[in-house]
Amino acid sequence: MPTDKINITKIEVVEFNCELGRPSMGDGSGYWRILGGIKIHTNVGITGEYVGRHPSEYAGLRHYASSLMGLNPLEREKIYTISKLATRQIGFLSMGVLDIALWDVAGKFYGSPVYELLGGYRKKLPTYASTYQGELGTSLGTPEAYADFAIQCKELGYPGFKIHPIKGENIDLDIKTVLAVRSAVGDDMDLMIDPACNYRTFLDALKVGQACDEANYLWYEDPYSDGGISSHGHFQLKSLIKTPLLQGEHVRMLEPNVNFMKSGGTDLIRVDPDFDGGITGAMKIGHAAEGFGLDAEIHNCGPAHRHVMASLRNSNYYEMALLHPEAPPSSVPVYINGYSDDLNSIDEQGCVSVPDGPGLGVEYDWEYIKKNQVTSTNYC
Fold first, then answer.
1. pLDDT per position as a tens digit, 256-292
2. 360 belongs to a structural domain
3. CA-CA distance, 39 to 147, in Å (whole number)?
4. Domain contains 16
5. Residues 128 and 206 in one domain
6. Which of 40, 123, 264, 290 is packed most tightly, with the most Cβ within 10 A?
């Protein structure tokens, strides 16, 4: 079929309740959270689908979805530009989920997985275990518990392990955790730490960074309460520690990330198709980082994230998030074709594979989604 004969006829957004793991319980119980899903319908019977993220990520569609009707869904760069202009005052909400679904349309149209359309660099992705944020008094509430979990992950075959520290911003406790995990796993496992912007002061961030230096950590991510966006502050921190900094989780879209890299505020840059304008936006940032000679590390997990990483040379690890020794994974349980992001999803080489089917290569459980539906909106 000629590519100019396909057009968008309807965009459907669904909000639904979904049960996720609750690590604080440590007993396998869960909690319910509202998530979103999108379907892009076309005149040729191809439907692009994506499920994930909070409903707020879909909110921006109301500002411009009607203007997309009749457009060619294969012209993603044009739609990226329209979306960017329409959402520039509301934090680019909806750009990521819309673009990911458009790539699903393209893959199904051409009968190819997204990573092949992107150029395809590899099919196996080295993976690290990324923990939940621990809590005092639970099974992930001491430095020793983190050390034991790191050993468990190493025995499963994970080549890397990342700490989200115990809640409470206890610097001494976090330093003990940094050192205890390294002592437990030895020198042949990559270790990282992500305080998630919880340290109150620059000097607190520096103290933990110095512990990372002592323990030879691979990277130090989003340490203090600037929200992860102060290029000057992180440039200063970089000058005082040797452990590479990883920034950008909260820096949205291409241009601010390029500014962060150019100012020297980070050694590695974060990329997330959900937050950075979809697969189109994530690839722009990944290629910009390559131009600066930097690596682009994928934030979070999911089928879109696997396709992006599979297409970037300058990326080291897939993040299996978020994991806990006793609780279910935090990934969305809406797949019916065997896809999963959980503790046991890696192969014997410590890797995950990229879905090989057309588009994103996954099938969603729309029966489950519809059963737990809260609201739905159709844009025509």
1. 999 999 999 999 999 999 999 999 999 999 999 999 9
2. no
3. 43
4. yes
5. yes
6. 40
Cis peptide before 312 (omega within 30 of 0): no
Residues 6 or more apart whose CB falls under 8 angstroms from that of 116 comprise none
Tell me how far apart the alpha carbons of residues 312 and 301 are, in angstroms, rounded to a whole number.
15
Q: Tell me the pLDDT tens digit for each residue of 141-175.
A: 999 999 999 999 999 999 999 999 999 989 999 99
Which pair of tokens denotes residue 16? 């639904």
Q: How confident is the model at residue 186 (pLDDT cuts 50, 70, 90)?
A: very high
Tokens matching residue 37: 């899903």
In a domain, 259, yes or no: yes
Q: Which domain holds residue 202?
A: 117-353
pLDDT at 25: 47
30-42, strands of its sheet edge to edge: 47-51, 30-42, 8-21, 373-379
How much is the pLDDT for 175? 98
Same-domain status, 52 and 139: no
Tell me the CA distances in angstroms from 121 to 295, 308, 310, 379, one per residue in order: 15, 10, 6, 36
Same domain, yes or no: 45 and 175: no
What is the Cα–Cα distance from 138 to 145, expressed in whole angstroms? 9
Angle between helix 95-110 and 76-86 (nearest 10): 170
CATH number at residue 10: 3.30.390.10
Residue 359 lies in a domain: no
Joined together, the tokens standing for residue 294 give 């930097």
Tokens of 185: 């796993």
At 32-57, the pLDDT tens digits run 889 999 999 999 999 999 999 899 99
The values of phi and psi at residue 262, to 5°, are -65, -35
CA–CA distances in Å: residue 196 to residues 258, 269, 335: 21, 15, 28
Residues 90 and 125 in one domain: no
